[in-house]
Amino acid sequence: MTIVDTTELRVRFAATLSDLYGREVPAYQTLVEVSAEVNQRYLEKNGADAQRLGSLARVTAERHGAIRVGSPNELRQAAVVFEAFGMYPVGFYDLRDAAPRPIPVVSTAFRPVDAAELAANPFRVFTSMLVPEDRRFFDANLEARLQAFIGARTLFSVELLELAEIAIADGGLPVPEADRLLELATAAFALSTEPIDEAWYRELDAISAVAADIGGVASTHINHLTPRVLDIDDLYESMQARGIEMIDDIQGPPDWDGPDVLLRQTSFRALAEPRLFRRADGTVGEGDLRVRFGEVEARGVALTSAGRDLYDELLAEVDRRRTVDPVRARREVAREVWAERMPHTERELEKRNLAFFTYSVAADAPRGGDLPSDLTALIDGGWVVAEPIVYEDFLPRSAAGIFASNLTAAGTVNEESDGTPRDMEWLEMAIGKPILLPEEVYEAQRQASLTVVAEGLGLDGIDAQHLKE
């Protein structure tokens, strides 16, 4: 009996969702085509260095999706579905205080965590959950109505959840059951054709377009699906050249002459999609909504806690300088700040423990003589090679910036009311599963590689004190 294992299930799941979203949002197909062209140009221009942060095959196939759910129960069920595809919750993101617009959700991302699984297919789904208890957005009456509406719907069928549980327990499924799992899981994220209660949707939309997209419809759906590119600035210009309207900026670090770090994102603007609405008089008529868009990303090296502190300091300095001189473009100011304070080489990032790297024995390592045990000396002497670990996660400010750039209205926030406490520990309880910290995942990869290097060089251990400072 042929078993489709977890990895292959995830590969196929990413592909079926991509096909689905391409049918629903044709401009996404254009985005994928342009992304492939950009990646090929970048490879031709930069040679082997182009694949330093991922092979062309991996980058071209890579996607992250985004969905939105309304309750802990829906989030728990989503976690079961994603675990069937080898995807686990990593990171906690609270967008309720995000700039430029607060969004009433907390989020995590479901993704592979093992290095080999990431190399095989790094599909991620950024999953946001509404917080109807937050009085800055919803009063008690609206909270009660929201929870009743969400509690009465079913996002994931019993059959889908049962198949997912079997896939989790067995590490895969026989072919017929695997096909059925993929069919049901993909359908769960398709855009519903059921008419939307117009008055209810508009009531929520006045508070938050994201709240309306979560609590104003009877199902969830792919909000965006994101290809990865090696040159996001080329992508941005190429999409505009095709007549696709892009948002005003690229979110995240600037383009500059030094190492690419963390994550840069942009998107084409949300398009008007035809939807059916149920009017107050009971009739059903056509309308449209602008809630889905086409995002694209470029990924850099993952930063350590010290690196993230530096990154946050640079963002704050950019904001400060733009307050003093608001006429200057953010992109220009950010380049200036990065050039002043961000290390200009990956080697310096590694020496200062600002970014995560894995280590391997160099193919042309010197032979003979006494080996040093110090990691820096091993690298400088040519025995060991440091390779950057790709940042696999997300940035709250960038996510909020993408969301805000595609919202049609500002929404409302009652700043005089208190927010409802929601942290990673609370979300773990809601999901019923531990949430991994991104830094812990990267650190585990780093330490595992050091163990392999020590064994390969015949050393009892490696002195990597600079990685602990």
Automatic annotation (TrEMBL):
Transmembrane segments: none annotated. CDD domains: VOC_YdcJ_like (cd16348). Keywords: Dioxygenase, Iron, Oxidoreductase. SMART domains: DUF1338 (SM01150). Its cofactor is Fe(2+). Its EC number is 1.13.11.93. Belongs to the 2-oxoadipate dioxygenase/decarboxylase family. This is 2-oxoadipate dioxygenase/decarboxylase.
